[in-house]
Every structure is written in C-alpha cells, then in structure tokens.
Amino acid sequence: MRDIIIVGNWKMNKNNAETKAFFEEVDGVAKTDKGLYGVGVPFTDLRTALDNAENLIVAAENCHFEDSGAFTGEVSVPMLEELGVKYCIIGHSERRQMFGDTDETVNKKAKKLLDAGITPILCIGETEAEYDAGKTKDVITAQLNGSLKDIPAEAYENIVIAYEPIWAIGTGKSASVEIAEDCCKLVRDVVRDMVGDEAADKVRIQYGGSVKPGNIVEYMAQEDIDGALIGGASLKPDSFIEIIEKTK
C-alpha cells in the first residue's frame, strides 16, 4: 500500500511573514501517520518554512543540475541539501513553457536530487491541443522516458510523479475523475514498461490541476492516484486544512 502525498505548490507567492503565519495555522493539522502533507515554497521562504515545520513537509520549487558555477539566479542541490530540504518539484509545465526546461534537463535534476537523498516531485502533462488530438499517451510516454532516463528501478520508491494536464492548471477546469485515473494508470503502466512491476507498484503518482476541497476525495479514491499537487487551494490555510482533514 502506497502512502498518500499531498503537496501544495505556492509558485511565486507568500513572503516570510505570510509563510510563518501559514505554518502556525496549518502544521498541527497535518500530523498523521497515514501519509504526507506539505507545500512547495519559493526559495526565499525555505528557511522560514523549515523552521516552522513539524508535520508538514517542505519542498523547493526547482533546482539546477550543476553543483555550482556561472548560473545567475539558480539554486543548486547542495544548497538545498544544506538547508535540510527533502523534496523538490521539477519539470513543472510553467518551468517547461516559460523557462526552457526540457526532458533532458529534468532528467539531470532528478538524478542530482536522488543522489543527494532528496525526493523529486517530477511533473508531466499534455496541453489541451495535445489532449484534443488524442496525443496524451504519446506525450506522457515521451516525457517519462526522457525525464526518467537511466534512473534505476530501485530509485522509484523515492520518486513522486505528478501528472498535471496543462489545460487544468490555474484554469478552474479539472480533469474528470475518470480522465485523471486513466492518465495516472497510464503513467504507472509506462513506468512498468520502463523498469518493471516492483518499481511501478512503489512509485507514487499525484494528480494536479484545479484540485480543491470539493473534489479531492473523489480523486484520492482512485486506485492509481496516490496524492495531489495543489496550486491555488494551497495558498489559503482554511482550504488546505479542509483538504488535509478530508484525506487523512
């Protein structure tokens, strides 16, 4: 049985004071032995988040695949490791579309994180045009094969894959439960083809895309959905608390 993992993605929101206030309100509610709850926060909030987290896990929202160098504005995995970060979101569609992340660079980041003992939350997903054209399977397969290239089967228990259809991120449109489950099952099947049954059974798969308190229970009831990557609903303590209480 895979443990659930529900993580909010704050994106470029909240300063340190707001982060501290959020953790003071939410952290105690997240105490459970049935899974993991947490948030991905901007780099500038990581220290405050970690200092105030007893139950919530804290994720960085990105990293670079080099340890150091002339990469202005980037943050390395050793820097995250020094802070005590244990989770990192990589390959989010916004990073891919706006900042040039590719399957190749995501693969390098995943390997670097795993080597440091940090769990990558690796995002994949198709555009609305690709979905309408019936290319979802091809897109997911290509992204997984590229982003997880040469990662050994035994590492998959320390990997989280977040399936996020791009057409459902920040749009208010969410994939139906049936679509979400079918696509998360597809992710697991692709992993099975890549590295075998044991890895496919252990890897945790999240659904993301306009997840909120009103639909979280339906998603979490599905066999191949082990958690959620949550955007807007994770910014408000009351809505994130409701999500936690409905699923723990």
UniProtKB/TrEMBL annotation:
The keyword Isomerase applies. It is an enzyme of class 5 (isomerase). Keywords: Isomerase. It comes from the Bacteria. Its EC number is 5.3.1.1. This is Triose-phosphate isomerase. It comes from Dubosiella muris.
